[in-house]
């Protein structure tokens, strides 16, 4: 069943409960974290009487957002989309959807670089900074909604569980060196129940390190204030 997704501010609202065959919980948690940060980025960019480009570039939160978004998209490009495309090769409409989801990635990294370049330009950067942030917010939000409304249902329909687990394992391997920041970033703002459910998807030793060390350390940092 393909869920109908409504975007209400920063939140994803599903009109009906959807039970996937594959475990999509970490993917959805990551999407929620990206949306959470997009709201903050847009708020910084809209600050009046300040230098939003400099503020954004100085914030650890911006660096984490970029790093974890790029790792996520490159893992999908390297591992997920090729096997999905192979799985749906006999269905032109499904193949077109897989191609479209991958193509949407191609505009995101250049936009991240353009936002940084505008923020670093003391002469004319402010003239394009706000528009670039708006474009980033719009394009990434649209991609996340498209992936949730159509892409996850296609993945759930077409991919064997072994291939989905392979993607998840490689995705996790690429993030492991940054686990002490990635997990608190991913889970920041989660309700106690959502936090419990998501932590169950991680190896026990990582969940323990999160609770005892990483989450408290992260909570003590203002990752969006570079000053």
Automatic annotation (TrEMBL):
Top-level taxonomy: Bacteria, Bacillati, Actinomycetota, Actinomycetes, Kitasatosporales
Gene3D superfamilies found in the cross-reference section: nmb1532 protein domain like
Pfam families in UniProt: Hemerythrin
Protein name stated in the entry: Hemerythrin domain-containing protein
The Hemerythrin-like domain, residue ranges: 27-149
InterPro entries to which the protein is assigned, alphabetical: Hemerythrin-like (IPR012312)
Top-rank taxon: Bacteria
């Amino acid at each position: 069943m393909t869920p109908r997704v409504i975007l209400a501010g920063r939140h994803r609202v599903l009109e009906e409960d959807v039970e996937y065959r594959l475990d999509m919980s970490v993917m959805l948690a990551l999407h929620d974290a990206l949306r959470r940060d997009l709201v903050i980025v847009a708020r910084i960019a809209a600050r009046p009487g300040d230098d939003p480009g400099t503020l954004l570039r100085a914030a650890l939160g911006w660096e984490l957002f970029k790093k974890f978004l790029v790792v996520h998209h490159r893992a999908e490009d390297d591992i997920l989309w090729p096997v999905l495309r192979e799985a749906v090769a006999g269905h032109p409409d499904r193949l077109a959807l897989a191609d479209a989801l991958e193509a949407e990635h191609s505009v995101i990294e250049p936009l991240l670089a353009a936002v940084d370049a505008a923020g670093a330009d003391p002469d004319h950067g402010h003239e394009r900074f706000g528009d670039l942030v708006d474009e980033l917010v719009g394009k990434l939000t649209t991609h996340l909604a498209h992936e949730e409304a159509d892409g996850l249902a296609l993945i759930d329909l077409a991919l064997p569980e072994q291939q989905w687990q392979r993607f998840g394992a490689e995705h996790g391997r690429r993030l492991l060196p940054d686990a002490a920041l990635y997990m608190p970033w991913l889970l920041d703002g989660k309700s106690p129940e959502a936090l419990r459910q998501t932590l169950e998807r991680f190896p026990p030793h990582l969940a323990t390190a999160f609770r005892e060390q990483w989450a408290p350390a992260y909570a003590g940092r203002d990752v969006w204030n570079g000053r």
